[in-house]
Amino acid sequence: MNHRARNPFAAKGVYTQMRALLRSSQASLPPGAAGLRELALAMGADDAGVVSLGEPALDEQRAGILRLFPFAKSLVSFVVRMNRANIRSPARSVANLEFHHAGDECDEVARAIVRALEDKGRQAGFPSMGFPMEADNWPGKIWVISHKPIAVAAGLGHMGLHRNVIHPKFGNFILLGTVAVDVESEAPARPLETNPCLSCKLCVAACPTGAIAPDGHFDFSACYTHNYREFMGGFADWTETVAGAGNAKNYRARVRDSETVSMWQSLAFGPNYKAAYCLAVCPAGEDVIGAYRDDKKGFLETFLDPLQGKRETVYVIPGSDAESYVARRFPHKAAKRVGSGLRPTNVDNFLGFLPALFQRGQAGKLNASYHFIFTGESRRRATVVIADRKLRIIDGLAGAPDLTVTADAATWIACLRKEASLPLAMLRFKIRLRGDPRLLLAFGRCFPA
């Protein structure tokens, strides 16, 4: 695939210019996947690919996509480049300015593609690159399309160790967009044969929370709690801090003035990422690798050292692996204990959250099997196995448990949300244990969020 930028207006991101270009070329666009790719490039994408909705790589998303866009037969995946110097800056205002503008450009490109297809009598639609999302579904899946696996299936890159898509030319300095179309793609999906990720581990070294491990483990909770502090759950935690303070003096004792101003800035201008250092230091991609290959020491001094040495607040869950990591690896950074805002509303998302919130460092040498039997309005049975610092969840009851937890589903959720007392629930036999009760405490330490 040719990964060269082909649109003279791509850097400008000006919708009217895109439409002017379309009007001058729309009659000559070839049909099918080739035509869709050419259209995406003409509308401002820096690269694009097309994947049939029937591809196995989209099995998990297909039903959801068709609910939104029942006409969909193919997906156009595209990338918009970000300016590297901004993303690499230790100043979060500079980096976030680029994230916001590139995000707007993604949505602008997608909208231009859809308008062009509608003008040609086709059906097309697109979700936002990032936000807004379907907030009514919180804390479940609020995004409507997962752009990353679609981009991989369309041959635009592969996931790196840091869980970002790395484009073979532009590296991870990209944002992704997707357009659903009623055009059949005659060509099969052609993912890249090789992963551009260099396995250099610079993303591991840069992450202030230890969310990215050298062995490939990813601590979602650590990344989410800090980097997304001013999004979703972090904002919910902040509002509860405001409500719980009672008066201005108590609020100021809990929240510094700079944090209040930062939250205001996110509300006024768009939520700001606190880190995204993994993107900043990634040297993969043809356009990016030269500086790293020619002078690795200079690359580290220029891009990695300022991020590692930055004095900043790192938001962590009390008792989490991230809290231990910051104290050990970055003692000059101030770890601040906060809530994650990830509170389950039912037993299904309680079980669904567990892999994202599991803290393998806190699990330590724990080796236990748990049976959960939920009764009441929401009935569910599941087995949770924690062994060798790994988590496994099995639907239904499997094997011989070390501890069985039988609980009224609503009461269990209320206890997790700190809206009910666990000891009182046990006294009232709303929650019953069979086995060593200390294993329930050990289970809790693995999921401090």
TrEMBL record:
Residues 188-217 form the 4Fe-4S ferredoxin-type domain. InterPro entries: 4Fe4S_Fe-S-bd, 4Fe4S_Fe_S_CS, QueG, SCP2_sterol-bd_dom, SCP2_sterol-bd_dom_sf. The keyword Metal-binding applies. The keyword Disulfide bond does not apply. It comes from the Bacteria. GO terms for molecular function: 4 iron, 4 sulfur cluster binding; epoxyqueuosine reductase activity; metal ion binding. It holds the Pfam family SCP2. PROSITE patterns: 4FE4S_FER_1, 4FE4S_FER_2. GO terms for biological process: tRNA queuosine(34) biosynthetic process. Keywords: 4Fe-4S, Iron, Iron-sulfur, Metal-binding. Gene3D superfamilies: 3.30.70.3270, SCP2 sterol-binding domain. This is 4Fe-4S ferredoxin.
